Amino acid sequence: MATQKPPSWEKYWGLVVVFSRFSALFMLLGTYKSFGVLMDSYIYDLDTSAAEAGTATVLFFAFVYFTAPIFGVLADMMGSNGARILIMLGGIVSTIAMCLSALSTTWYQLAFYLSLAGVGYGMVQVPTVAPLLMYFTDKFGLANSISAAGGAVGMIVLPPLTERMIDNYGWRGASMLLGVASLHTTVAGALMRPPSSFKEKRSYQQIYGKDDAPQDGTPYESLTKVKRFAKLMQEQLSIDVFRKRPRFVVYQFIFLLAGVQFAGWHLFLVPNALSQDIALFDAAFLASIGGIGNIIGRAFNGPLLDHNIFSDAMLFVLIHLVCALSLLLDPLATEYPLMAVLAFWAGLTIGASYAVTIVIAKNLAEEEKYIMAAVGWTHFFMGFGAVIGGPLVGATFDITGYYHVGFLLMGGCELLITVCTFIELMQRRYTQDLRGRYLLM
Predict the structure, then answer these.
(1) Which of 60, 169, 261, 367 is deepest in the core (most CB within 10 A)?
(2) How far apart are CA 263 and CA 33, in angstroms?
(3) Is the pLDDT higher at 237 or at 16?
């Protein structure tokens, strides 16, 4: 992907791209957070357990992230309009799948349709980063923070709306309406036009070969094209980044742990309150309170990083330390005001963590050719953690009858993230100091 700056007038369209990503992430995270409001309906209407319902819903998040490396690479391979095409297609797929989920009669069917919806949103999640890289080469951290805040706004708006839709139309009607709303993602994708300097389309020559492109409109045989495409996919997935970047491997384990907490908190914040006899509207409003914190968390980290007030790793440490405390204090939250305070701080730190994670993945890549692959692999391992987190928290409730145990386990994961990141940071600084002393000798 080229990195030359676009003409100055196109920076105005960069603001449209920021808003488009904001809108797409609004639907993605808002929908996922709404599953927490739908959770009890899934459990009772489909006659299933919390662990099974948690598994079905977490597959949505997991497939968003599992497919991230593939769609991130495809967006890069397909040229300047690749991300735009994938986002538009993803909006259509997620709309169809969410509408079909309303027809589920077993948790297996629900899991299948939500997995398909996750694939649709997987076409959205990472590809929306590509247009930002095109327009914001110097202020990527700020642009990423502002656009990523769309997910937080979705957390504020959609869960209470979902609760009202359940009251009026039942959970099936609410699912259908969420599906229809997902079609807005297609509009957002259409607005993500690339700057003029990126209008070249590279996939044709990459698949056919630079010197062997078909002449006179005669295409290569299908098998030849498939082989070239497969080879290119292997190269673009940049699996060698795991060998060449040891820090990248360490952080993938850290991001896996973050996925455990991310999925568990989003899915079971509302059911946790409902289990303590909090009314559905008040429980759903906790998601909105967390969303407010999420907006603040996603917004403040950009200036801190762009002005070098904190390094990305140190900010990551501080964020997850605060998050650990908000989760570990959950057993003490027996009254609504304390639940609201903890929801706010958890939402703030989760929002900040995600935004910083994208910046860390970008910096870990070091070379431009690895950036989209690094972001994709980061989402993949977070998705893997989500597959653990959702069923784990649900299973602890099935066994103990309380969600507190699951929240304590998530808090433990956050402490482990803090320790691992801090050790890696100190080791890297120590190595840099040794190199500096060696050069001065």
Answers:
(1) 60
(2) 9
(3) 16
Inter-residue long-range contacts of 333-342, CB under 8 Å, 24+ positions, other chains counted:
334/276, 336/273, 336/278, 336/282, 339/273, 339/278, 339/286, 340/286, 340/289
Contact 154, 31 (CB under 8 A): yes
Q: Which of 176, 148, 152 is nearest to 38 (CA)?
A: 176
Q: Is the pTM of this model over 0.85?
A: no
Classify residue 138 by its DSSP letter. S
| pLDDT for the residue numbered 130 | 80
The pLDDT of residue 306: 67
Query: Each residue of 163-200: pLDDT tens digit?
Result: 899 989 999 999 999 999 999 999 999 888 877 765 55
Cβ atoms within 10 A of the Cβ of 292, count? 18
DSSP conformation letters of 248-269: HHHHHHHHHHHHHHHHHHHHHH
DSSP 103: T
The residue behind tokens 């968390």 is: 297
As a whole number of angstroms, the distance between CA 324 and CA 253 comes to 17
The gap from C-alpha 333 to its chain's centroid, in whole angstroms, comes to 28
The two structure tokens encoding residue 218: 């005669």
Q: Which residue has the tokens 């990523």?
A: 148
Task: Write the pLDDT tens digit of every residue in 399-437.
Answer: 888 899 999 999 999 999 999 999 988 887 777 666 665
Pick from 285-294, 333-342, 386-395 the range whose average pLDDT is largest: 333-342
In the numeric block, which tokens belong to residue 352?
């900040």
Are the C-beta atoms of 291 and 352 separated by less than 8 Å? no
Amino acid of residue 126: V
Per DSSP, helices labelled H in 46-181 are 50-66, 68-77, 82-101, 107-125, 129-135, 140-181
252: tokens are 């993938």
Q: What is the DSSP letter of 329?
A: T
